[in-house]
Design goal:
The protein has 215 residues and is of the alpha/beta class. The protein is 53% helix and 17% strand. It has an 8-stranded parallel β-barrel, surrounded by 7 helices. The chain is globular and about 75 Å long. The termini are far apart. The structure holds SN-glycerol-3-phosphate.
């Protein structure tokens, strides 16, 4: 399973990249706005670290505008995936971009039928937002189960990228279902590393080691 960071913070990405557990980065306009930096500058810095998958979202709402932006974004670096919203215009743009060899991440997906359409137009990734579904009283993980089942039924190559992840249990559930990728905030990925019994166990080992005769 691939683990992505959902952030535009270069220092956070660098920290996780250095641990060796990071497989990619997803950004969105909200995350980019939080950093107060130029979008392309951030993308270039993240790609320069060697991160092999970096999703950059278009903000145009017509197919034509999405194509112009998508073609521009993809030439920034070979690691760029173009993020396109799940709309009729977005489906059309994805079909064209995919036919040109651009890897598209279809975002703002909230139903299994939308995910089916994303696969049909050749999206490389589909991004269902599970946390936002949970917030609305719907079990987001049921959507992941449905999408994984549908993609297996028809052997679609589109990868299921679980987005809007809010806590480590989301990651665990996504892994058990067999989702390809989970993207999460830095704080959630950091929590995956830690367990209080690891800390207690290490402290005890170090304490006992002091009793071992040295020299
Ligand atoms: O980047 C897409 C998605 O992960 C956003 O998550 O927490 O804003 O619902 P969130």
């Amino acid at each position: 399973m691939k683990l992505f960071l959902d952030t535009a913070s270069v220092p956070d990405i660098r920290t996780m990249w250095e641990t060796g557990i990071l497989d990619g980065v997803t950004t969105n306009p909200t995350l980019v706005a939080k950093e107060g930096r130029k979008f392309e500058e951030v993308l270039r810095e993240v790609c320069a670290l060697g991160v092999p998958s970096v999703s950059a979202e278009v903000v145009g709402t017509t197919t034509e505008a999405m194509l112009v932006e998508g073609r521009h974004l993809r030439q920034i670096h070979p690691s760029i995936y173009v993020k396109v919203p799940m709309t009729a215009a977005g489906l059309k743009a994805t079909k064209v971009l995919a036919s040109e060899g651009t890897r598209v991440n279809m975002t703002l997906v909230f139903s299994a039928n939308q995910a089916l359409l994303a696969a049909k137009v050749g999206a490389a990734y589909v991004s269902p937002f599970i946390g936002r579904l949970d917030d609305n009283g719907q079990d987001g993980m049921e959507l992941i189960e449905d999408i994984v089942e549908i993609y297996q039924n028809y052997e679609y190559p589109t990868e299921v990228l679980v987005a809007s992840v809010r806590h480590p249990v989301h990651v665990l559930q996504a892994a058990k279902i067999g989702a390809d990728i989970a993207t999460m905030p830095f704080a959630v990925m950091d929590k995956l590393v830690h367990h209080p019994l690891t800390d207690l166990g290490l402290a005890q080992f170090l304490k006992d080691w002091e009793k071992v005769p040295k020299g």
